[in-house]
Amino acid sequence: MRDPNLKSARRIQIVSLRMVREQASILFPQRKISKPADAAELFRQFIGDCDREVFCIMTLDTKNQPTALHQVSCGTLNASLVHPRETYKLAILSNAASIIGCHNHPSGDPTPSPEDVELTERIRDAGSLLGIELLDHIVLGEGSFISLKERGFM
């Protein structure tokens, strides 16, 4: 004889999965990152109006669809400690094919610092070893953003 609670538990799992999918589609309806502006929009919703530097990653599947957003580090007014180890730990646990990194500049000026460029190179190189490509690193400012890939820093 089958346990009637088993069928109920299965129904709850399906409903939970459906809610996660619907929630993701509300956050980003087109479900594909095709340009830096798409990623910047999603990161801006995730980070919000934070008064400290926050470094986050978006994990993507093979079709460039976001699978997860993770906060890797929360720093101070003008710095954030980020290491490739923590960055790729989250990417590996999310089964990412690739990632996009992003951090905010609370000053409002999205111009990348030399440290931002160095961090991008370190994360890119670590990803090459792991087979998880860093597609871009985006710096958010007040109402604007800069893509390090578009600026030729990657």
TrEMBL record:
Q: Where is the MPN domain?
A: 32-154
Q: Which UniProt keywords apply?
A: Hydrolase, Metal-binding, Metalloprotease, Protease, Zinc
Q: Does the keyword Metal-binding apply?
A: yes
Q: Which InterPro entries match?
A: MPN, RadC_JAB, UPF0758, UPF0758_CS
Keyword set includes Zinc: yes
What Gene3D superfamilies is this protein classified in? Cytidine Deaminase, domain 2
Q: Which family is this sequence assigned to?
A: Belongs to the UPF0758 family.
- Supply the name of the protein: MPN domain-containing protein
